[in-house]
Amino acid sequence: MSKQKTVLDFFSRSPAFKSPSGEAATSNTLDKKTPQTPTSSKLPSNVIVSGKKAKSLPKSPAVNSPSNGTQAKSKVSSGAAASRSSTPKSTKRQSNGNVLAQKGKRSKNTDTDDTEEEEEEKTPPKEIKRRRIVVASDSEDSDEYKPEKDDQSSDSSADLSDHFSETESPVKKKRKSGKGVASSLQMFTNPKASPSGSKQSNGTSAESPRVNTTSCSDSNAETPVSKQKPLRTSNIGTGDETKGSNTEAREFSHEKLDFLKKEYIRDKENRPSSSPNYNPSTLYVPDDFKKKLTPAMRQWWNFKAQNFDAVLFFKVGKFYELYHMDAVIGVKELGLVYMKGDFAHSGFPEIAFGRYSECLVEKGYKVVRVEQTETPQMMEERCKKISRSTKYDKVVSREICQITTKGTRTFTYQEENAGVSNNFLIAIYEKPLEDAESPSEYGICFVDTSIGKFTLGQFKDDRHRSKLLTLIALYPPVEILYERSSISKKTFELLNHHLTGTTKEVISSFHWDSQRVLRFLQKTEIFTKEDDTIEYPETLMQMLDPDDKFLETPLKQYELAFRSLGACLRYLQQCCIEDSLLSMKLFEVYVPLDEVHSASIKDEIQRVSMKNSNNFKKHMILDGVTLQNLEIVPMLSSGNAEGTLFGTMDYCSTSFGKRLFRNWLCSPLCNPDMISNRLDAIDDLIQIPEVVEAAVAILKRIPDLERLLSKIHTYGFARSQHHPESRAIYYEAETYNKRKINDFLSTLEGFKQTSEMISMFKPKLNDFKSVLLKKCVSSEEKIGHFPDMANELNYFEEAFDHEVAKKQGNIIPSPGVDKEYDFATAEIAKTIKEFDAFLAEQKRALNCKVSYVGTGKNRYMLEVPENKKVPSEFEFQGGRKGFKRYYTKETKDLLARLTSAEESRASTLRDITRRIFAHFDENYKMWKTAVQCISTLDALISLVLYYKSSGVSMCRPKFSLPSEEVEPHLEIIEGRHPTFLKYFTGNDYIPNSVYIGPKRDTKNEDLNSGGRLVLVTGPNMGGKSTLMRQAGTLIIMAHLGSYVPAECMSLTPVDRIFTRVGASDQISKGESTFFVEASETSSILHHATSNSFVLVDELGRGTATYDGTAIAFAALDYLANDIGCRTLFSTHYHSLVEDFCEHPSVGLGHMACMVEKDCDCPALEKITFLYKFIDGACPKSYGFNVALLAGIQKNIVRQGFLKAQQMEYSSRLSKLLRRLLSVMQPEEIIEVLDKKYKFFAVAE
């Protein structure tokens, strides 16, 4: 008999789990040669068949529910012993290889499908074996399977495992080849029924592993050994055999279902995939198909129909199971291994949820966690209350407790630790406008679910979507929400082009208008006070119409923002996390960097002039194009920081410090006073190196306090009884409690260390010049902002025994911490004291030995010698030889009081951990302020460490304010590109000087003569682009408040940096190279001011030479004459040099090179790049010399050079004729040429 058929045969016995097609497996699928167990009727559910003998096991009483932590032990024979580590214990295999001996009693605490066995189809019983459940280690810090001591397993792991019949097998580890180590699923082996118990003819093992030991992040780890032929999974689409699969090559049953086939698939509304309203996240499952399913599998298909685009982690006992197409994904992406059967099935234990869900989410999948929300006992009680229950009632309830995507990860105790970067979920709503300059208006809302902060905004944008591009550059989303009709095709193409790896989720909740969103917020009751009035955070209040007393109408300029907020809330509600995030009450307003608020958020947004320091904008504007072109930060949240300015300057020790430092780089300061304050802080910190060193050591030990505060808020949040999470049944609750407590203790220790670190700065406080630094490290009310946390930290230090809490996974509060617990404890002590007093009284009254006996509900019975006469009020309860036991009215009353007090204390203890977390969260503002101070200090120290580690000369940039006497200028002496310094040391990197400002005479060859616009020429590969990027990067560093790698740097503030560098098309948007150039140039010409800094690199290269020259000329002329901003404009169009060489605002500079004239052909001359920027124009671009360096053959270069000469001569002749025509008539020119050179006569 085929071993695989044995599994199907087992399925046929239990209607609780038929094959996925709905048909029960029948006996005709079995090997005809396999001997059958002779019997005339079906076997009881507790009978185990082996060979020809069936042994009935005694029934056992129900074990405790999983929450009480008790475990009923069962012992299996060596033939069924399982290992859960890479080095399993050796076990003895019995001769028949499949006898499952069971010691103790089997749990009745099973799921519905055990109940359904009463309705089994009457098919001949086949040879089956009971399964032994192998559970994961209870260790809190391990997801791996470990061998059980003495082969013991918990019956609590089996109480829900049997309900899916034998398909619900435990996760397996690899076995030693040839050692005969048995599997926990060895009951799937169909042994030969010979008396000798001979081995199977094919010599294969019968174990059916479910999960690979390989971690999803470790592709090189060993996989389980299996001698079975691997299954061919056609729907994976990789063409490779599934790693570790252990079934024969054939199709899975779900691949045969018509309603899953591409041509027939429909959504839950029965709309075909060709319909414009088709919803790919749902699936239509025919009713006639569902009627054939078992109750549990019917549950699964109902969940799948609502979440067709997600992977279901379906809870069965202690395991999360994956079925059908989800199992295929689990095998492919997670290294799980298929269970035996005619349908795809795999799984893993509850404790490993975080590891596997994180792995899938990182790969772009959506994970749905389906939990059991009642125990089998609760199910039985529910069924008893139903007058006529059906088989579909006899299954434990399950509910979706959370849906996890890249944008909705909260990183709680069940999930893996978060990375450093923010994970933004953003909703976008677009409204078209009839305005050529601003054709679109956007409402946006983005939220970082790891810290629970919502940010809302609304703005009009130009046709290039410049503000939207800047938004996604500053806050790179990992997931985008939009509705098909709510964004234009151009916006959709833009998002696809710039966020290729970002998940785009189509939703249908934008029909929530702004008023409905506000009504939804009110219904959550999160913002409802005790007197039933609504109190929103101040930020939201300022966005609402003050005339609406019901707080249901936003201001007109925020209607789209609230619609986007509604989309976020609806999506978060589907993911079951909206309540915990909203309860943080963190809301901010997003304002594009080129817009500035006036005194009130309700006033119109105005542009601010830059006449003096008080009117400077707070931040410099860096749009998405500039951030990308200058490589300031990684453009994606998960991008590599290597090669960026952030990667170069980031010496932060904390995760929240790194996030703040990234924000600093994306929006540098613009106000000179604020910049000077940061520079003063760096100077102050440089003077105390020993304190900085000690502070860094402490900062490296501090956890991510910002995210831990969000975690603790979630742990302390009292979820509504309507939330499914409040009903979820967890078998690893103790482990999860330990993780929560460890997070809490880690947070307390982190804040304790920050307080100790701050105290180190106190002796130096009076020496600091920087007001910013004083605010970060001082707790004095008039000086600093760092909060005094001593009282709160001391309170939690004494609130409970930390070591005991970590070990036991629960908190026992100290006296005075919780009034309810203290009252219950005092009542218990008082009652026990009264018991003792009553006992002493009875001893005196009876004048004999009297004692209390009994346990549980029968405690405190008075035990009296039987020969002793007792009062008539004594109620006889029983006795033992020589003694009788009694209750009295007094003992009954005292026992009732004691029981009530104990129940009250137990109830308090069940919620005490949450209440302590909630008490900690009451001071959220204080903790958050401390985090802000520490993150600022960490970022400042990062600037200090960068300064010390640069290895080159660094200077403090000098800012001066523009005025009538001081024109906008920029001067950099011997500057170096900061990122390149990591790759070039010593004399390998050549520094350069740049001056942009009013023209001046200079005797220094290494310094150009200036001009508000400097026209940069030079040979190809001569360093023009690097010089321009270097200037822009150093300006950003100066505005960041950092020292810069230069001998000297002085400038007036820059309000915005524009870049038009590089050449590339954008095929996905249908934009050619020149269109991209023209679009970026258009943005510059529209938004640049006299205080901006512009970099234009070879404008016009993407089109014809004459067109490109003309466009470059016009743009250069507009920048020089109309805008007058500081500009570096590189070009290979040397005619521009001739046109602007005399312009008063245009200066010339070029990258120097050295040419060795060692041959007759100039194109073959050797060129040496000097990478030095000097005054004047370069005579030519030396393109042929560079072509020769690139390896183009000399004859081709020479031919090209000759052609270029001809074109140059023609160009010169044309130019000469144009000059002549400007002063002479054509007839006069002909007459002169004919008389002097007989030109036309010769021609005739």
From TrEMBL:
A matching Pfam family: MutS_III
Bias (Polar residues): 24-48, 62-71, 87-99, 183-237
DNA mismatch repair proteins mutS family domain: residues covered: 1092-1108
PROSITE patterns cross-referenced by the UniProt entry: DNA_MISMATCH_REPAIR_2
Record-level GO BP terms: mismatch repair
Biased composition (Acidic residues): 112-121
InterPro entries referenced in this protein's UniProt entry, alphabetically: DNA_mismatch_repair_MutS-lik_N (IPR007695), DNA_mismatch_repair_MutS/MSH (IPR017261), DNA_mismatch_repair_MutS_C (IPR000432), DNA_mismatch_repair_MutS_clamp (IPR007861), DNA_mismatch_repair_MutS_core (IPR007696), DNA_mismatch_repair_MutS_N (IPR016151), DNA_mismatch_repair_MutS_sf (IPR036187), DNA_mmatch_repair_MutS_con_dom (IPR007860)
Annotated Gene Ontology cellular component terms: MutSalpha complex
Region spans: Disordered: 1-252
GO MF, any single term: ATP-dependent DNA damage sensor activity
Biased composition regions of type Low complexity, renumbered to the chain: 72-86
Source domain of life: Eukaryota
Residue ranges, compositional bias (Basic and acidic residues): 160-171, 240-252
SMART domains: MUTSac, MUTSd
This protein's UniProt keywords: ATP-binding, DNA damage, DNA repair, DNA-binding, Nucleotide-binding
Functional description taken from the UniProt entry: Component of the post-replicative DNA mismatch repair system (MMR).
Family: Belongs to the DNA mismatch repair MutS family.
Protein's recorded name: DNA mismatch repair protein
Species: Larinioides sclopetarius
Lineage: Eukaryota, Metazoa, Ecdysozoa, Arthropoda, Chelicerata
